[in-house]
Amino acid sequence: MANRANRSLLFGPGGGAGGASSSVVGGGGGGDGGAPSAAAAADAEALIADNDRSIDALHGRSGAIKAMALQIDDDVTSQNAFLDAAVAGRMASTAGALGGALDQLRLLTDDGRGGCRRSTLLVAGGVGGLTALYLLLRMMF
Q1: For residue 140, is pLDDT > 50?
Q2: For the chain, does the N or the C end have fewer beta carbons within 10 angstroms?
Q3: pLDDT at residue number 111
Q4: How far apart are CA 75 and CA 122, in angstroms?
Q5: What is the end-to-end Cα distance of the chain in Å, rounded?
Q6: pLDDT of 91-126, one tens digit each?
Q7: Quick one: three-class SS letters along 38-56?
Q8: What angle do CA 116, 132, 117 make, to 5 degrees?
Q9: From the CB of residue 29, how many other CB atoms can be counted at a distance below 10 Å?
Q10: Distances in whole angstroms, Cα of residue 67 to Cα of each of 72, 80, 114, 130
């Protein structure tokens, strides 16, 4: 298994079942010079098996998280495309309406037809009329 090759990176050379864990778990059986006992070796193997199961479970969870992240990315991409299409259509129609209003304003203020003078007199007359109406109503009430 590839996990066993990476175990030496985690625990150092000779690490894992044989090196540091045998002296911690069981140390020797009486006076045999510190050789690991069968129980210590079994405990070390059980720990290694438990670590392998935990690594496999972690690998499965990370795969599930990656799948969810890819699903979220696909959803965001499709929603952005939908919003771009919806906004682009509305912006085009708004630009068309605004362009039409500006064309009408240009026609109104066209110098060749006397539109500038006429529109200026129209605005000034409207403002003057409203001011006179305001002052008249203020005097009455």
Answers
A1: yes
A2: C
A3: 64
A4: 56
A5: 97
A6: 777 888 888 888 887 777 676 666 677 777 888 999
A7: HHHHHHHHHHHHHHHHHHH
A8: 10
A9: 14
A10: 9, 20, 70, 68
